[in-house]
Amino acid sequence: MIIEEYDAKSLVRTAKTSLFSWAEVYLNPYQGCEHDCVYCDGKAESYYMHDDFGQRIRVKKNAPELLELYFKKQGFFPVNREKTSTLVDYFPKLREAADSSKTKKFVLFIGGGVCDVYQPAEKEVKMTRKLLQIAYDYKIPVFFLTKNTLILRDLDLLKKINEDTYACASFTITLADEKKQKIFEPNASTSQERFEAIDKLRSEGIHSGIYFYPTLPFIGDTDENLNAIYRTAKEVDAEFIYCWGLTLKPGRNKTEFMNTLKEHFPDIYPKYKILYGNEDKYGNLDRAEFKELGLIWPEIKGYKLGYELGLDYTSERYVPEGRIKTNLELSALFQRLAYLKSFFVKSSKYEIRQLNEAARFLNTYKRDFSKLNDEEREQTVIDYGIMHYIEDYIANRESEALENLEKFSYESVCNYLRTKE
Ligand code: SF4
Fold it and tell me: What is the pLDDT of residues 101-150, one digit of tens each?
């Protein structure tokens, strides 16, 4: 394994929130990933990563400086740092005033698509730990998604952050069978180890859930695998399971995957050739062939299992300091409604677009929506037809409409699956 350090020009990126992640800022301190998962989307040419992605790890050695610089530019102060080299060190009372609770904070995703920040190299480099310490110093909530139990090394910091604000340490788990898992994720912790890590994190009060992603057609989407993952998730007290399918982008991503498939699953290989034969540039499968091959969307089966077991399909949205609680909660509500209406209940494209637009708008809207009068509400971009969701939520601080829709989605999914038996 080659570990190469370099000075990066930039580090921090902003992101749109989605059910996948409520984090609004993310960073990749590494380029390349020793886990070397066969389906890794980060290997796709569109990310401009180096060829030996799994064997050469590039480390942004100035990442801590870049992160601090970013926080300072946002007006944040390292309230939790003992020595700040400012007047606060001499006048401790100023520390309280320096708490930047009036500046808008966000959940920081330490990680992204082109590395796992707890890959084995981290044991030696300790870059993620440095970044986590800075997040703690500046009182920033954090989110992780990893396949490595090395994250438990930083339990002390995760606990401190979680007590102070919010820490969510999530795991990707795609295959319960260890033999199959090792084929596709050769250098990551085993699925069993990841489940145990969730158990540990949850017992320490840290937020944690599962990304059942990508769900591999004919391999990961079997009833056996789905049942095993959802039921073990429940046993270890995971808070949610986000389930999604596989994309294979033409080029390195697809070629590597198909070669492995041919070697280990020769019977399934021809089906993938048909399923992903469309060479879609985003790696999406061919929907007509999907139907022809008799497949069922893993999201559908997953939703049913999750509903029955009381496992949420996404994490709860945390509201960071300085943000308007009602607006962010409403934004999350609209994203949930849009998701359910897109996947499980036939709804008009117009309504789904309106829900998504309302979610985007509320995410950044500067006034508390619950305090607007009728005339002011009408002047916003929120469509009159979906305003009742807001009224329902503001009146009860929970959404009966969402609860009903979740139940209705469950019934629709059950009916659909019955027709496939
Ligand atoms: S852990 Fe994530 S980033 Fe690393 S190789 Fe696997 S899929 Fe890619």
Answer: 567 999 999 998 789 999 999 999 999 999 999 999 999 999 999 999 99
Which parts of the chain register pLDDT below 70?
A: 48, 99-102
Is residue 321 exposed (0-12), middle (13-18) or buried (19+ Cβ within 10 Å)?
middle
Fold of 325-420: DNA polymerase; domain 1 (1.10.150)
> Is 145's C-beta closer than 6 angstroms to any atom of ligand 1?
no
Question: Would you say the CB of residue 37 lies under 6 angstroms from ligand 1?
Answer: yes
| CATH number belonging to domain 2-309 | 3.20.20
C-beta of 42 in contact with ligand 1 (< 6 A): yes
Structure confidence at residue 205 (pLDDT): 97
> What is the C-alpha to C-alpha distance for residues 250 and 99, in angstroms, rounded to an integer?
48
DSSP-assigned letter for residue 159: H
Token pair in block for residue 332:
């999350």
Q: Take atom 7 of ligand 1 and give the residue whose Cα is closest.
A: 40
